[in-house]
Amino acid sequence: MVQKAKILLVDDRPENLLALEAILSALDQTLVRASSGEEALKALLTDDFAVILLDVQMPGMDGFETAAHIKRRERTRDIPIIFLTAINHGPHHTFRGYAAGAVDYISKPFDPWVLRAKVSVFVELYMKNCQLREQAALLRLQLEGGTHGGAAKESAGLLAELSARLAAVEEQAEALSKQLDDDSADAAAVATAAHLERKLTGLRRALDALEPGTGGAPTLPSQN
């Protein structure tokens, strides 16, 4: 059974959390609530998340401050953050969101389908990253445990399968980048595509390092 990804929803208003759960329930992943920045940081101490949806306007620790804490922690700094805000103070306010480490910045009221589609991209990337890490660990064990004919053939087959799966994701990411390669492209979408490309580059580098004759097991990129 494939383990579900966890999505962290951070908002001080229960009705907003309920609305987010209704929108994202179709993704069939584990949705975790946090009603404050402090509660969100506590959840991040123990669990791994595919993506964080973070409200900007919260009493006490606001979204920007919460994001700053998340990015300072080595364990959580690579988790994608999507800011949600009911206010829009123009480009400067949006820039502050990206400067705080967000991969996207969405103003309320937002299109439910668009939000769900954007979150699904990060869930898919997270799941593929986890799968690749698990299979690469298995491959390393096989390589370290012996190089007899059967094991070597099985390892080579698994490596080829991993490479093919990653190539399919790389092709999708490249197509997305081409669609966004014009002056009218949304800045948030461009930032999201760039984030995906960086993660895929790290995965490809790790996979290439597993090829015979490259000197052993690599350190894979973080799961988020």
Describe the structure.
By secondary structure, the chain is α/β, with parallel strands linked by helices. The protein is 57% helix and 11% strand. It has a five-stranded parallel beta sheet, with helices on both faces. α2 packs parallel to α3, α5 packs parallel to α7 and α6 packs antiparallel against α7. The radius of gyration is 19 Å and the shape is globular. It starts with 5 loop residues before the first strand and ends in a 16-residue tail after the last helix. The relative contact order is 0.11. About 3% of the residues have low confidence. This is Two-component system response regulator. Keywords: Coiled coil, Phosphoprotein.
Question: Which helices and strands appear, and what pairs or packs with what?
Answer:
Layout (H helix, E strand, L loop, with lengths): L5 E5 L3 H11 L5 E5 L2 H10 L4 E5 L7 H10 L8 E5 L5 H9 L4 E4 L4 H34 L3 H31 L7 H22 L16
Parallel strand pairs: 1-2, 1-3, 3-4, 4-5
Organism: Streptomyces mauvecolor
Protein name: Two-component system response regulator
Keywords: Coiled coil, Phosphoprotein
Give the low-confidence spans: 215-220
Which H/E pattern describes the elements?
EHEHEHEHEHHH
Straight-line distance between termini: 20 Å
The overall pLDDT, averaged over residues, is 78
**Helical content (DSSP H or I, runs of 4+):** 55-70%
Question: How many DSSP E strands?
Answer: 5
Radius of gyration: 19 Å
Which sequence of strands runs across the widest sheet? 2-1-3-4-5
% residues in beta strands: 5-15%
Sheet of most strands: 5 strands, parallel
Number of helical elements: 7
Structural class: alpha/beta
**Basic shape:** globular
InterPro entries: Bact_response_regulator (IPR050595), CheY-like_superfamily (IPR011006), Sig_transdc_resp-reg_receiver (IPR001789)
Protein name: Two-component system response regulator
Modified residues (4-aspartylphosphate): 55
Keywords: Coiled coil, Phosphoprotein
